[in-house]
Amino acid sequence: MITQYTRAVLALGSNLGERNDTLTEAVADLVDRPEVRLLAVSPVVQTKAVGGPAGQPDFLNMVISVETSLAPLELLKHCQSVENKHHRVREVHWGPRTLDVDIIVYGDLESSDPVLTLPHPRAAERAFVLYPWSVIEPSATLNGVRIGELAAQAADYRDLTPFDGFGDFDGVPTAGAV
């Protein structure tokens, strides 16, 4: 039996708790299943919250590229189970969260299903997704445009900063900060 794998891009973000540790553990959790194989991991960037209530802590964001034999809705369910493992609470739309995992693309699939719209409906406007993705897949396109170009045009592009990897909690450095 030959198993069919599809390439998918997942965006991860966290702005509560030990953000960097959460992202690291979430990557491991996402690829812990044999149906999900890790292809690439982007660098981590720090960003201001986009949308949602004012005064949120800064986000750490990253993108991973995987290949999966899971169907799109199965992959979504898996991503949500990893969010739940990391105590994701859905009380406020676009509110603070320990972990957010979004499916950005699933192969070339286009879907307007309200449960899982593909490509992700706001990805083309978000540098915090596009820039890390462009680092691991520089030739990737979204809606026919190179993702690096889209990142540079995104309103949040100037707010991106590299994350140095030192400890943090809720967007405030706890160690190694000068």
Brief write-up:
This protein has 178 residues and is of the alpha+beta class. The protein contains four helices and twelve strands. Strand 6 (111-112) and strand 7 (117-118) form a beta hairpin.
Descriptive keywords:
178 residues; alpha+beta; six-stranded antiparallel β-sheet; two-stranded antiparallel sheet; 4 helices; 12 strands
**How many helix segments?**
4
Q: What fraction, in percent, of the residue positions are helical?
A: 10-25%
Cα separation of the termini: 56 Å
- Quickly give the structural class: alpha+beta
- Spell the H/E element sequence: EHEEEHEEEHEEHEEE
Shape: globular
Please give the largest β-sheet.
Answer: 6 strands, antiparallel
Mean pLDDT, rounded to whole units?
90
Low-confidence stretches: none
* Rg, Cα atoms, Å: 16 Å
How many strand segments? 12
